[in-house]
Amino acid sequence: MFKSKSILVALYIFLFMGLSIYAQEGEVTFEMKLSKEKLGINERLRVEFAMNKDGDNFSAPSFEGFKVVMGPSQSISSSWINGKRSFSKSYSYILVPTARGKFTINQATIEISGETYKTLPKTVEVTAAVDKPSDQKTVDDVADENLHLVAEVSKGSPYLNEAVSVVYKLYVSPNISVTNYRPLDNPKYNNFWSQDIPVTKHSAQNGTYQGKPYRYVILKRVVLYPQRSGNLEIEPLSLEVFVDVPTNRRDFFGGRIYTQTSKTVSAGKRTLNVKALPEAGKPVNFSGAVGDFKFSVTASKTQLNASESLQAKVEVSGKGNLKLFQLPEPELPSALEVYEPEFDESVRTSSSGMEGKVANNYTIVPSFRGKYPIPSISFSYFNPKTSRYVTLNSEEINIEVLEGPVNSSSSSIANSSNNKQFVVPTGKQFHFIKLTPNLNKIGTNYFFGSTKFYLFLFAPLLLIPIAVFSFKKREAIASDAVGNKIKLANKLAKKYLSTSKKELGNKEAFYVALEKGLHNYLKAKLKIETSEFSKEKITSILAEKGVNEDDSTGFIGLLKNCEMARYSPFSDVQMQNDYEKASEVISKLDKQL
């Protein structure tokens, strides 16, 4: 009896253990693991979300109070031991605290076998910076201490429209080596006119950072012209840099083993205090020029005949915001026919700003004989070095038309003013009429009734249908306003894009000429200040003029292509497409403007 009870108890124990093992094997676990629950603000935190069964739709928490520098990194492990399957899967993140205090890492969720599982929230305390022994520093800690991205600004408090250069340098300690990098976030330079200066060669140079020897590489140069006064922010440049960091381990031959890791570096925000141009002493004709300039007005010739042409050039040269102001216009006598000026630009942008010259070339055609003065005109600019306005005046030019018709209005005025009288010349003033004319008989071949007579008689009748048809054809062409506008727009597009068409196949020259043509078109049609040449401003002006949004977007897209072409490979097919698109966009804009 006792023996049978012992067997029954053993059987119950065996069944209970089997059920427990089965329950343990079927139980799903999903939990959060922290590398530490208390850390310094200069340390990193590793957060791992682990599960024993595979799932879908993993959702991480927001990590408030921390910045994710790596992750999520996924790890899966599966094995069979004594006929039993072991499985584990995890998502891990590397976090950097952004402030001191206590922060809660909230729940993460995942779906396993159709059910949603959540982790328990955990609290992490961030304290002041702690001293970390060098032998306890991780690979990421070493990368943090030996890699820095710095934005060096030439002026912290420039004037409006004064050049500011920004140079981005990557400082690397001799303890580590950089293998590659990729940009994560490029600054947009809002409220600035910007021009990138290409960095053709990334060569390392010796330097110091915070008093320690470093090597640095210049990654990016840009010239900025602030377009409004006040505190303007320069957005940070962010990079992901891949580095090789030495470890304390050594290989078989005693050489140090390196580990590769990635680090996100940022140049940080920089704020410029942009000073407004002084109102005291500002000239009436000031158009926004800031720098140091020379000004001249010249004519290709001063003596010519009527209906011949001459070229008058209004030119500004020097160093400053050459692309961002409007040239003064000459005041010419009404007797001179003046055509729309052709804009000419030869500007080189370096790290110190724009330098070169800009000019408007006017074609002038006199209609009458006489002398015509081109009065002196003035040009004003602000010199940031002296903090004063400067006004330059051109010399007066006298145009003499030697041969040609006399302007009747001017001659009558001249005669009345001089009180001159016309005198009848003496000599053979009267001639007698002959009373006996010498007439000869024409013979029997009379013209009236001949073939020629009827041919000349009915020829005008035959020409009437041709004249009517020709008149109707011309009237139809004249009434076709849309067709005429298209023809004029196509001629206008060819005028502004003629230089770029010649440079098809030469990428740099083509896109420089294309950008110049697009800028010249805007200046000629909208009469806008060139200081407003930001893409956002152009878009708003075109919208105010009632330009279709697609056409405005196409125009801005062409300007962006011109900028990108300096740093990106563009094929001949792309250049041809951009040229055709520019011609089409100018035609559409001209019809709407």
Could you list some keywords that capture this structure?
membrane, Immunoglobulin-like, BatD, 4 domains, BatD protein, 593 residues, 30 strands, transmembrane, transmembrane helix, alpha+beta
What's the gist of this structure?
Keywords: Membrane, Transmembrane, Transmembrane helix. With 593 residues, the protein is of the alpha+beta class.
| Biggest sheet record | 5 strands, antiparallel
* Strand proportion: 35-45%
Instruction: Provide the low-confidence segments as ranges.
Output: 13-25, 410-431
Overall mean pLDDT score?
80
Number of spatially distinct domains:
4
Q: How many helix segments?
A: 9
Q: What is the count of β-strands?
A: 30
> What would the principal axes of the Cα set say about the shape?
elongated
Gyration radius from CA atoms, angstroms: 42 Å
For the terminal residues, how far apart are their CA atoms? Answer: 112 Å
* Structural class determined from secondary elements: alpha+beta
Helix residue percentage: 25-40%
Transmembrane segments: 453-471
Protein name: BatD protein
Organism: Flagellimonas eckloniae
Keywords: Membrane, Transmembrane, Transmembrane helix
